[in-house]
Amino acid sequence: MPAESGKRFKPSKYVPVSAAAIFLVGATTLFFAFTCPGLSLYVSPAVPIYNAVVFLFVLANFSMATFMDPGIFPRAEEDEDKEDDFRAPLYKTVEIKGIQVRMKWCATCRFYRPPRCSHCSVCDNCVEEFDHHCPWVNNCIGRRNYRYFFLFLLSLTAHIMGVFGFGLLYVLYHMEELSGVRTAVTMAVMCVAGLFFIPVAGLTGFHVVLVARGRTTNEQVTGKFRGGVNPFTNGCCNNVSRVLCSSPAPRYLGRPKKEKTIVIRPPFLRPEVSDGQITVKIMDNGIQGELRRSKSKGSLEITESQSADAEPPPPPKPDLSRYTGLRTHLSLATNEDSSLLGKDSPPTPTMYKYRPGYSSSSTSAAMPHSSSAKLSRGDSLKEPTSIAESSRHPSYRSEPSLEPESFRSPTFGKSFHFDPLSSGSRSSSLKSAQGTGFELGQLQSIRSEGTTSTSYKSLANQTRNGSLSYDSLLTPSDSPDFESVQAGPEPDPPLGYTSPFLSARLAQQREAERHPRLVPTGPTHREPSPVRYDNLSRHIVASLQEREKLLRQSPPLPGREEEPGLGDSGIQSTPGSGHAPRTSSSSDDSKRSPLVKTPLGRPAAPRFGKPDGLRGRGLGSPEPGPTAPYLGRSMSYSSQKAPPGVSEAEEVALQPLLTPKDEVQLKTAYSKSNGQPKSIGSASPGPGQPPLSSPTRGGVKKVSGVGGTTYEISV
Amino acid sequence: MQLECKTYSRDYGSEEVGQGLETESSASLVHNLQELRRSASLATKVFIQRDYSDGTICQFQTKFPPELDSRIERQLFEETVKTLNSFYAEAEKIGGSSYLEGCLACATAYFIFLCMETHYEKVLKKISRYIQEQNEKIFAPRGLLLTDPVERGMRVIRKMKSWWAAGPGIGL
């Protein structure tokens, strides 16, 4: 037998089924040959007929159970995979009749296993309503062939009982000729029958109970519904009728594909576009943003309520809808922006384009070295871009994929091959899979993804308008809020938090602008950064200031050193694996969580993910590689760990950048607060951290974020 | 199982797609479904996921994907999905006909399956015809294509979107 790749002919797996077949057919044949003739004479000719019918039934069901496709799911195609690709969480939760059921990502088959579906390691297939893999039939028992397996067990039990009973009858009739051939053979058959009766009857009884309860063997053995409610049961009668009386399910593999011809020709019908849908372009920093925000909010709410998918068990609310609702607006805008950006003259690297503030007169104080900063920043950006591309850090990549490929800048775009929709849906599925504590991450990721595209738009607008502000950088909120945030003149009390990607250096520079006295402390920490953000908004500067103070006040957190290493190993492996996503389930599983979390934890991650993360590297971080991984890692942990982990991870991530940890903590806190529907009472950075939010300047500033979220930022 | 809705997109930035589509867009296009499927990688795909809220019965989410917001009316889409759901409910219905079918199959030692197709399969054929019809009448004029969920194990309905249908500056 020719060995296929990855599939070797293993004779050992055919032993049980062969033995079963041999015993079954052999014993029955002997019974028919030796016992039945006598019985038909002494008892009735109906005996062999009955036994023949039963035996035929056994054989038919045995064959069906053995050869029938149990309901194997075909492997998911590439395009579907991209939706849920790396960065997607390991589990996706669905609510079934009020009960949260987890759908696990199958690394081999590349989709989220539907409820009751399981992957059979023997057959290497995901099977619908997987019961178990039966060695005696050498086949998985699933939705399609469970009925035949069950009937096989029933009929086999009946057959064994019949053979044993009638054999006993025969022996009783021939007590005086026990050494005779027929009697001896009959006794042998009886022994075989008696031997097999106990396990078979036991198994039959077990499955009768399962059918009555509406459970599969897999569920029973793994104790899924132990002490809980089984959402798949419809009552005993309905369960039994469903097993025995329902129409056999179709097979999914090997279906004939019909060639169909469909004419697609323009002009294409289009639904009437409502006003709300039209406002895509953001010409103004604030006005349109508000429009879009309200629109997106509305759509988010609507879709949210409708979505049955995704959500960490206790809390409700699918981000899928939220995200997709947002994405529509974003994508609508991004296309325009692509054209806008294309017209932009500055021959800067793509990433550089998306940095607000440097390219033109910014609203903030004019910086003498802004031009040089621009250039230097551009250079540094180029490097991070290439690094990003080479590392293919998922967190950076998933965000920008919101835009259509064409739109993506060459630097970004090369590494991405996803449609905005696919990336969006991926992110949404990603978000949807979050656990309780993930809601924040989810919101953030939504926001971040929104912000990414929004940032493009806003940048495009700004480059055109010539007025840039870093306010957009500050807000981790969704893109719609970008403009709203930007539109409003930077409020005087600066926001207490900034993008996690703003390095301490930047922060220091900012602070230096505002408070010259702080300048000396900044440069001492690090080499001069090639990138300078001279026109960071007041908010950033203020927050940086705050952090500086806090950094000086609070001691460095312990255990931070561990994280970088972990982050390194965790994340650096993931970029490679991220794009070869789920070949090995074990590694994938381990990587999934970090991967998944990556975009989630960051408040402004996605938008800043590309520029910022890369920027961070360019900003003088001595290790360009680990930086993104750190950040990515922090993201991955953020979604899973408790907030302390997040803040720590973020701290660690920023440590090479010499960002004051408080900055991270603040951001974490704010990012967390972003996830909450309403503002948190006080901007607490997170448990375990010194009270960073203690307003040194006295007062808490409320900043509105996306979707009506308000953040209270200590000022 | 997903409902898959394909949108064919012209990627302005991508040479391969752009060239191919630009030459074609000027003329009326007759696309073989196979061709559409081949160019699936170039199409934007919207996946409509299964709705498991009622258990493992086959039904799809009627939630309107935002990506199709400007492509198709919400009502049309929902109606299509609801009809599909009703078809699947009919296929999985446990009633007299399915019981008799089972009995007959048992009586003939399942040889009847060689001659006759099951009730489910019959309904699947109906669904396939319905999807084709919908594609021709409703989705293709909008530059969309609905794929039969059974091709993907009934996990997803895929809609493929065409960018030719996209107006300027709109890319979903």
Automatic annotation (TrEMBL), chain A:
Kindly indicate whether the keyword Chaperone belongs to this entry. Answer: no
Q: Which residues cross the membrane?
A: 21-43, 49-68, 148-173, 185-210
Composition-biased stretches (Low complexity): 359-373, 422-432
Q: Which GO terms describe its cellular component?
A: plasma membrane
User: Where does it localize?
Assistant: Cell membrane
- Keywords per UniProt: Acyltransferase, Cell membrane, Lipoprotein, Membrane, Methylation, Palmitate, Phosphoprotein, Transferase, Transmembrane, Transmembrane helix
Q: Does the keyword tRNA-binding apply?
A: no
Q: Which family does it belong to?
A: Belongs to the DHHC palmitoyltransferase family. ERF2/ZDHHC9 subfamily.
Name of the protein in its database record? Palmitoyltransferase
Q: Which organism is it from?
A: Acinonyx jubatus (Cheetah)
What lineage, starting at the top, does this entry show? Eukaryota, Metazoa, Chordata, Craniata, Vertebrata
State which gene encodes it. Answer: ZDHHC5
UniProtKB/TrEMBL annotation, chain B:
| A Pfam cross-reference name | Erf4
Q: Does the keyword Cell membrane apply?
A: no
Q: Name the keywords, alphabetized.
A: Membrane
Q: Which GO terms describe its biological process?
A: protein targeting to membrane
The cellular location(s) given in this protein's UniProt record come to:
Golgi apparatus membrane
Regarding the membrane, this protein is recorded as:
Lipid-anchor
Entry's family note: Belongs to the ERF4 family.
What protein am I looking at? Golgin subfamily A member 7B isoform X2
Q: Which organism is it from?
A: Acinonyx jubatus
